[in-house]
Specification:
Chain lengths: 401, 341
């Protein structure tokens, strides 16, 4: 027996393994079980759908989405896009979706601002501010949101004056049972161009900010990051307005007969839903922000102080950016909650998508179809919101490492 | 293993596809076996279906259920009342949760044809109207230009309002609430100038919810036809026949003067129609699957149609609704029952 030379050690990358198509391979087993699970779920869903359809057909209940092309036959109290009763059901649903988005988007923005302020206020050195923020959170978090919506709506409809006795500020802004009415420019080519100019200005302002930030990191020279971009956006709007012929026609709200003619109104229903949701969700967001701020290491605060930053600057430049990593995931949940809670608007008469679907359901009898449309709408809105927030989360995270 | 699982699943699905729906043809059997009629009613509409503080239900719709229970189960008290909102009512009936829906429901083509229901008949011929505060100084619905109108969702009201608004170019703005209490609350707080629902409902709401009923008037225009009546599921023709003929029997009884007080005495009458109603000559009940005293029991439980009307919504009640179209055909109204023979 001669001593055989030891096999030479292989390099760090061995030859690629060939895929093994047999049960002994763990990867193959995993794939098989996943496929099996998908088939099982698919069969389950198909069974439910088929059973429902078969039962409905056997009882003479008509089904199908063809009703969406029929004329709706009902009016909607407030719409963003032009709509009348002869439009098809799908347009009525679209109006409902826009109303839901309107209250959800404005609500998210306002709730975030209010919640952040209250959350930061919990760390104030002033005991009264701290106490007020604490009381705010405990009060608005613990009362069911439907009760809060009803409270706001009762407040608006009971305390506001009737239309012919509207409380007016300078003859331009009216507050009455028809809501908060304000003048709007009459829609024309010039106004459209002004909006387009504003959007272009927004883009230019964003590019300017990126350039200014890059310059700051390179040279340390501080440039205005807020006022100059704002001026750029305003300049864009003015430029667009001028190019469009400088129209000056405004639509001023006046009380006429039983309704408010002209201008635009934020109805008590909209305000009730908006304020109810904003105050409720801000309570939760305040706690999320507080948790985020508390998660930032104390050393950061001290370091900021030693650099000579004021408390406000420290909060804005050092603490909050680091707290964002902790804040954003639960904040996403709160945004989704706000969006879904807006479905309670049907209790106080705001025509969101649930209200429209209820009416359509009653008029056509297509209960399963209408409910599935509602579910699909909320699913799409929620998935878009969380996708956006996840992208923002990734962006906030990269700055750390 | 996978192919076997799929095969057994497919077999189960095929079996399910051929399985008969649970309640077709068996509603009557289920009622008799349960010993109780499950009746879907309104959550609270004075005069039609309302529970008092002891939980005792009264109203025109409630009385119909009692009459039906008296015919099938021999006792008008063997009824379970299920209060339903406008959204829930059809689903509750379709799913089998209730046996009969007696909830001031309008009989329309869509509901009759596409929901798997049958309408039994008309217990109350109604129309949609408007209620406005006296302060608004409105005398006719056609003056409500641009008005905000509170309505409850889940009813025929919205569509009728839109039709009326478009026909008369009034550009009315509906504010649609899920619950009736929210809709009436918004009207009474002044958010809307007008409130619209069936005229009988307006009378009931003004009487029950207004702080001062005299400060509200019901405008004279009826903008739609609202024939209100009970509904049952499709698939049980025997139950359908009984439900129909209980209603027709009540109207026939009023036409021939058979009342709650004199029904026993009427058993000895010589009028051939009365003899058939009371079962003393021919046995009409047997043809329906009931006994010959079915209509006697019914009238003894609730009285005839006129008595039901007078007791629940008539002149002596706070609603004070006139018979109007609900009077008998030979007295100026349109309640006409096919003959019990």
């Amino acid at each position: 027996m001669s001593a055989e030379p030891l096999p030479t050690p292989r390099g760090p990358s061995p030859a690629p393994r060939r895929r093994q198509w047999s049960f002994r391979s763990e990867a193959f087993r995993g794939l098989l079980f996943q496929l099996f699970a998908v088939v099982l779920v698919g069969c389950g869903i198909w069974y439910l759908a088929h059973n429902t359809l078969a039962n409905m057909a056997a009882r003479g209940i008509q089904s199908g989405f063809d009703f969406l092309a029929q004329p709706a036959g009902f009016d909607i109290g407030e719409t963003v896009i032009p709509y009348d009763a002869l439009h098809p059901y799908w347009r009525a649903f679209l109006v409902g979706v826009m109303n839901t988005l309107r209250v959800a988007l404005v609500g998210i923005v306002l709730a975030t601002i209010l919640g952040t302020l209250v959350g930061i206020g919990r760390f104030s050195r002033n005991a009264i501010v701290r106490g007020l923020c604490y009381a705010y959170v405990e009060f608005f978090r613990n009362i069911p949101v439907l009760i809060q919506l009803l409270m706001w709506y009762l407040f608006f409809t009971d305390w506001l004056p009737p239309i012919f006795e509207a409380f007016n500020v300078g003859g331009l802004f009216l507050l009455s049972k028809a809501g908060f009415s304000f003048p709007v420019p009459v829609w024309s080519f010039g106004v459209a161009l002004a909006l387009v100019g504003g959007l272009i200005g927004l883009l230019a302002a964003w590019l300017y900010r990126r350039w200014a930030l890059r310059k700051f990191e390179a040279t340390g020279r501080v440039r205005s990051l807020f006022w100059v971009p704002l001026a750029i956006v305003a300049a864009g709007m003015v430029l667009g307005w001028l190019v469009g012929g400088a129209p000056t026609a405004w639509s001023i709200p006046r009380a006429e007969g039983f309704s408010m003619e002209g201008g635009a109104s934020a109805t008590p229903e909209f305000l009730g839903v908006l304020l109810g949701l904003v105050f409720y969700t801000a309570g939760f967001i305040a706690e999320v922000v507080r948790a985020g701020i508390a998660s930032v290491a104390g050393g950061q605060v001290e370091a900021a102080g030693s650099l000579g930053l004021t408390r406000g600057m420290a909060m804005r430049l050092v603490i909050l950016p680091q707290a964002l990593r902790v804040i954003i995931p639960p904040l996403t949940s709160q945004y989704l909650n706000l969006t879904k809670n807006s479905s309670l608007a049907v209790a106080i008469g705001y025509p969101d998508v649930v209200s429209i679907a209820n009416t359509s359901l009653n008029q056509t009898g297509r209960a399963v179809e209408a409910i599935s449309i509602i579910m699909a709408v909320y699913l799409v809105i929620s998935l878009s919101t969380s996708a956006f927030m996840n992208w923002y989360n990734k962006r906030a995270a990269i700055k750390e490492r | 293993m996978k192919p076997m699982l799929k095969l057994s699943l497919s077999a189960a699905l095929v079996a399910a596809a051929f399985a008969a729906p649970a309640f077709a043809g068996k509603t009557l059997d289920a009622i008799k076996q349960r010993g109780q009629l499950v009746c879907g009613v309104n959550t609270g509409l004075a005069g039609f279906s309302q529970a008092d503080s002891q939980g005792k239900w009264t109203g025109l719709d409630v009385d119909y259920c009692r009459a039906l229970a008296a015919a099938i189960l021999n006792d008008g008290e063997k009824v379970k009342y299920v209060p339903l909102t406008a959204q829930q009512r059809f689903t509750a009936l379709q799913s089998g949760e209730i046996d009969v829906l007696s909830r001031n429901t309008t009989w329309t083509l869509t509901r009759d044809a596409s929901l798997g229901l049958h309408f039994v008949g008309v217990t109350y011929y109604d129309g949609q109207g408007f209620m406005v505060p006296v302060k608004a100084k409105v005398k006719s619905a056609k003056q409500l230009k641009g008005a905000t109108v509170c309505v409850q969702s889940g009813t025929t009201t919205e569509k009728n309002l839109t039709d009326f608004s478009r026909t008369n170019k009034l550009d009315m703005k509906p504010i649609v609430f899920e619950k009736q209490e929210a809709a009436t609350g918004a009207y009474f707080s002044g958010r809307c100038i007008a409130f619209t629902t069936d005229a009988s409902g307006l009378a009931s709401i003004r009487n029950k919810d207004a702080k001062d009923p005299k400060e509200h008037i019901i405008l004279p225009e009826l903008i739609s036809k609202e024939p209100l009546g009970p509904a049952i599921r499709r698939g049980d023709d025997e139950f359908f026949a009984i439900a129909k003929w209980v209603l027709y029997g009540l109207i026939e009884a009023e036409e021939y003067g058979v009342t709650q007080a004199n029904v026993d005495q009427m058993k000895t009458s010589q009028d051939p129609v009365v003899m058939r109603i009371t079962g003393s000559s021919e046995d009409m009940g047997k043809l329906l699957g009931l006994d010959k005293e079915w209509l006697v029991r019914v009238v003894k439980t609730t009285g005839n149609y006129g008595e039901m009307f007078a007791r629940n919504v008539g002149e002596k009640t706070p609603l004070n609704l006139p018979r109007g179209a609900n009077n008998l055909w030979n007295k100026g109204g349109i309640q006409y029952a096919p003959p019990v023979r």
